[in-house]
Amino acid sequence: MAEAHQAVAFQFTVGPDGIDFQLSHEALRQVYLSGLHSWKKKFIRFKNGILNGVYPGSAPGFMLVLAGYLGRAHYLKVDPSLGLLVKLGRHVPVRYACRTDFTKKIAFGGVMVGTGLWIAIIFSMRTVLKGLLSWHGWMFAPHGKMTWQIRLWLVCILNIFSGMQTPMLYSFQNSLPHLPVPSVKDTMRRYLESVQPLLSDEEHRRMQSLALDFEKNLGPKLQWYLKLKSWWATNYVSDWWEEYIYLRGRGPIMVNSNYYVMDFLYAFPTHLQAARAGNVIHAIMLYRRKLDRAQIKPFFALMNRVPLCSAQWERLFNTCHIPDTVQHISDSRHIVVHHRGRYFKVWMFYDGRLLLPREIEQQMERILADTSEPQPGEETLAALTAGDRVPWACARNAYLRHGKNKKSLDTVEKAAFFVTLDDTEQRYDPANPVESLDHYAKSLLHGKCYDRWFDKSINLIVFKNGTIGLNAEHSWADAPIVGHLWEQVLSMDPVKLGYTADGHCRGEPHPNLPGPQRLQWNIPPECQTMIANSLSVAVALANDVDSHIIPFSDFGKGLIKKCKISPDAFIQLALQLAHYRDKGKFCLTYEASMTRLYREGRTETVRSCTMESCAFVRAMIKEKLCLLTQAAEIHQQMYRLAMTGQGTDRHLFCLYVVSKYLGQDSPFLQEVLSEPWRLSTSQTPLQQGELFDLVNHPEYVTTGGGFGPVADDGYGVAYVIVIQH
């Protein structure tokens, strides 16, 4: 076989006539092309690092400053360094320059001082831009009104301090403000307001007493440490949030943490599993290439003028949540494909280029045609990533970090991403819409509990009938990052890449392409027992989850906006009403809000159950709608506070972490952080509507994604508002 001969660069034998070397020129050629690709990527990253480091400065700006400074010095016949060169002349290497004629001295000094002036201008602009971005008065202005302060503020950001060059993905990172620490008094007030509709008068008075005691005694001491951290660290929440919420957890991340996103609802680009995998994998790798080159446009709020933090994109690929840490490598040239309990390593590059869709389809066809059986313990191996984390850590260290198991495990964990060629068929069935989508969602959320590597940053699932979806691990980033990738992939798959009339990817198979490599495992019986135990835990968890996907097409956000109500607030109030009708009571409600207006910001909680929302629900039960607008406005106000760093829960969480470090327990914090979120909600908005012509092609509507509930007796509600009418 061709791939067998190309597996090594050279061979040698020792005989009577000496050593006989046998070089494989094809293998050496591939080594050369691989190294060339690697150095190109390093150069691009180095160049982008410089451009991002000097933004909002630019090369034209540097030349303009330098030319102006040199011209002024030459015209006035003055030393541009103002005597600095004379002082430096006592030291090399500028001594020679100081002894040359005046023209050369002007040139040398002008370049030196002009560069310093340019750097000073950059830092001044960056400091002013950070100050401007720290103002969030625009978020609290009445909807549809643009005050003169906001107009002036936008002019300063857009026309003065945003640079002369086109910004790249990470250009604004150094200009974003740090997340502020709210005062303890404000957090206590907002917390007490949020729990008032959930407590009786007596319970609320008791909680007020606890909060007042905390505010006067332990709170200021904990707050001092948080203030110190906010001055020193880039973000006072994000590292602790990742460590203690995601990495220190000992329960399964399947269902409890991982989430999923779905395919088109009505469009079915091809029925061929390998072909769909070929196009989608190629599209994902193209996105990764743009990400490596920082060619993805930065993200903005308020008419595309206020930049958002892009830090979470850094770990989208080549990332794995191994027990207690997130492992990320700078580059990976392969993916791992799982099919019928076997694992295959598939190289994504050949001849120094990315594989084309038809070539990837060719690799998938080879895997689907492979009739070999799983090795002992291999079929259910991934169940370790679905069960409790402590047994997984023990099994990983004891049995999978040695011999050929280590090589195979490294291949999986260091892959660009993980692919499952699922042997089931999932699809929206108009004749049976609810049940078909329920099965589809549960398959994406947990599958068979052993056919997804839940630790990988993203798992691409390709079903037997060509339907696709993603399962994403949560510790490294939040859902909008995966959502942006998925929108790009779905927009590219059926239109830009396309398929032939018989459903195959466009193009031709490669005649000499080396095939996938089967990973080898040697799993002892003791490890197989641990795998079986993890699988039983995961299956019990999966069976305990009910999932329902409900497409709603009666009206969309266009009609809601005509009522001058926020679509998100409208949905949240509808959820409050539905929960009250279902349970006969209100509950603590979690809605995720982003804090990416700040550097390394992730999320904050919007406590959607308020006194106003409860008043609306009670009135609605009596068929009255007059309180809807008031409740929606209060919800939007809480959302704005969360986005601008004035939320409640992240501050309380960090105060709790500091109290644990200091060994000082707070009855107030213990009670607050033990309250269950029985209604956990999140919107997955369509971020790039321009990619989909839903007016002419409504079949490209997607149902978004979903996640598991965070309380055993609670609900996890994900929603996407797509249509306008």
TrEMBL record:
Any Gene Ontology CC annotation: mitochondrial outer membrane
Pfam hit, one: Carn_acyltransf
Family note: Belongs to the carnitine/choline acetyltransferase family.
Stretches assigned to the Choline/carnitine acyltransferase domain: 179-721
Catalytic activity line of the entry: (R)-carnitine + hexadecanoyl-CoA = O-hexadecanoyl-(R)-carnitine + CoA
Subcellular location: Mitochondrion outer membrane
Molecular function, one GO term: carnitine O-palmitoyltransferase activity
UniProt source species: Sinocyclocheilus grahami
One annotated GO biological process: carnitine metabolic process
Active-site residues, as the UniProt record annotates them: 474
EC number: 2.3.1.21
Protein name, UniProt field: carnitine O-palmitoyltransferase
Listed transmembrane segments: 50-70, 106-129, 150-170
Domain Carnitine O-palmitoyltransferase N-terminal positions: 1-47
Membrane topology per record: Multi-pass membrane protein
Pathway this chain belongs to: Lipid metabolism; fatty acid beta-oxidation
Keywords, in A-Z order: Acyltransferase, Fatty acid metabolism, Lipid metabolism, Membrane, Mitochondrion, Transferase, Transmembrane, Transmembrane helix, Transport
Enzyme superclass (EC): transferase
